[in-house]
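Fold this sequence, please.
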Amino acid sequence: MDGKSATQFILLAGILLLKAWAKETVRIVEGQGVREGRVEVYYSGAWGVVCGAGWDMIDAAVVCRLLGYGGASTYQSNITFKPENGTMWLTEVRCIGNETSLWQCEHAGWGENTCVGSQAAGVTCFEQGNNNTYLQRFSFQCRR
């Protein structure tokens, strides 16, 4: 294997490892099926919720793609949860749509809870091959 091939192999392995890691640090829980529910992220050794304030379809699509789905068909910004069920890890999440990780989206900072009440973000994802993806139907929106 020459130097160029070795470098390409290492980069590919790194990308695959990053995708596997990202998938294991975001999950959807307490939905009616495996493709829907409240969004949780794993940080600092614990699972916690994402605030629903300001959560939108673009944010939901990033999460669904991270989990290997084709995209998001709906989003929820007001899923009530009991505070003792988890920490509020992320608030004010603002994705632009091309992120490969939720951590790349703008947010208030890890553990900086600016969320009012106990409202969590939620998603409903669809399988690959479904053409109803939000990001295919609408162009990316400019954010502030």
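Residues 10 and 51 are 36 Å apart (CA to CA). The chain has three helices and six strands.
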